[in-house]
Amino acid sequence: MSQVLEEILAANAAYAQTFDKGGLPMPPGRRFAILTCMDARLDPAKYAGLSEGDAHVIRNAGGRASDDAIRSLVISYKLLGTREWFVIHHTNCGMETFTDEVMRGLLASSLKTSSVDASGWHDSGDGPGSTEGNYIDWLTISDNARSVVEDVTRIRRHPLVPKDIPIYGYIYDVKSGELVEVPQATEAGRAG
Ligand SMILES: [Zn+2]
User: Fold this and answer.
1) Which of 94, 106, 108, 185 could be 149's S-S partner, Cβ–Cβ 3.0 to 4.6 Å?
2) How many other β-carbons are positioned within 10 Å of the β-carbon of residue 115?
3) How far apart are CA 33 and CA 171, in angstroms?
4) How many A from CA of 42 to the centre of ligand 1?
């Protein structure tokens, strides 16, 4: 068995041993949702003080308002009653380190893990790669305050999103653990 698999199963066995949350209702008790990055350094349960049953947490690379993130947010409100949404990007996001063109080039050369140094990303793996990457919008980030504003604005204007949900825009600082508001995003996300 892989070491990670073994560790996860052991951790889960310990968790289940003292688990007492089996009676929670499905709708989030605190009625909010967070859209944030998948970055391993971010733990929304810790940085936002969540317990099981409190909130929806939707994660993807960058915490971007992709069509699929919006699908989850719409379900979160329409079927499960959340009333406030947060878009939380973060400092030092990996999505700032490449562009669509870079990612497409790396994938066209090989599917293996690339390496990065001060001059950027490099691919040294064996091919073949694939040009399928050319058909994906990788939703990279060039300025993380601007990406929060763009994503809050996109969600706000989406035809399936009702006007009365406030959407707050924040950047999580990976050095300090603090959430820093992006006022222009929160303004764009104001409930109407
Ligand atoms: Zn990130």
Assistant:
1) 185
2) 10
3) 16
4) 8
